[in-house]
Structures are given as C-alpha cells and as structure tokens.
Amino acid sequence: MKYLLQVDFIMDGPFGEEMSKGFADLANSINEEPGVIWKIWTEDAAAKEAGGIYLFETKEDAEKYLDMHSARLTSFGITNIRGKIFEVNKALSLINNAPIK
Amino acid sequence: MKYLLQVDFIMDGPFGEEMSKGFADLANSINEEPGVIWKIWTEDAAAKEAGGIYLFETKEDAEKYLDMHSARLTSFGITNIRGKIFEVNKALSLINNAPIK
C-alpha cells in the first residue's frame, strides 16, 4: 500500500530555472530519505506558492518526512505550510495510468 | 511543460474497496478528458477526506477539468473542495524520479 504526501506553502522564490539550480542539492538528498519513491516539485510564481507531491512506501515514512520537512521549511523562514498524507486507492489509480508501482 | 492539479475534499465515503467499485466508471471516463496524463486517487477514511492528484498536458486543460470536476463534486453534495494547479519544475522532479514524462 502506497501513501501520497502533498505539501504546499507560500514563498517569495526562487522559481523556474533559479529554483532548479538553487535546490538541486536538496533534491539529491531527498532520494536518500527513507521510503521516498518519487517527488514532483511544484511551483506557481504568480501566486508565490510552491510545494511537492511525494509517493512513499509506508504511512510512517511519509509522517516522519513531513515532520522533518516542515521543520526545515520553517528554518528557511517559510510559514503557511500545508501538508496532507493520503492512502492511494490502487485499483482506481491503475485505471487512470497512475505511476504508483 | 506539465501541470499538476491537486484536489481534496471532505466526504463520508465510500472508501477502500467500496470506493474502488463505486467509482470505476468515473475513473474510466476520466481517461477521456482532454489533457489528462494520469490521476492518483487519494483517500483517508479516518479523516473522511479524499481527492486526487492529476498530471495534465497544459494549464488550460487543468483549469477546465477543475471547473468541471468542482461542479460535479458539488452535485454529489460535496463541499469544502480545495483545488490547486501548479507548474511542474521538471529539472528538480527528474532528479527525484518523478513520473512526468
């Protein structure tokens, strides 16, 4: 059973290519976190919002990551952090070609 | 450039296997919607919440889908619908093995 974590927050940037350069090391470190299968990095420069969608092997891994990541974002000065963990409905997701294997 | 739509809302169910059976026809219809690449169906029976994470080909496709889907959910009696559209940061997402191709 897979778990999905969705995180989003308000931030002043960087966005786009600057974001890609500024957070490459962080992205690499995320591959080392327990239970992370993948992350999609999300951004909305106009709304000044960003975040991520993650797939995890277990609910516990997702919960531990959210705690760690929320503390890290707070240390960056980011507030208004919204994090939610959901179970993935496998049967319905597979109908819609979801990347959950 | 790909766009991510995240939707979640409060609902009384069904969850789990009943959800899989009850919404299979809806899931199949979603494959016919313009620009949908995939959908991950999300659920949290304990919190009585559910939703979906979608990848779209264009921002316009995501916006049109969110309008249609919000109206459909409202017709089901669902309130507290939260829908957000983000641009995907491709370079960072590919570092984290994201399924965005």
Automatic annotation (TrEMBL), chains A, B:
Coiled coil: none annotated. One of its GO terms (molecular function) is monooxygenase activity. It comes from Psychrobacillus lasiicapitis. Gene3D superfamilies: 3.30.70.100. This is Monooxygenase. The keyword Oxidoreductase applies. Keywords: Monooxygenase, Oxidoreductase. The lineage of its organism: Bacteria, Bacillati, Bacillota, Bacilli, Bacillales. The keyword rRNA processing does not apply. InterPro entries: Dimeric_a/b-barrel, YdhR.
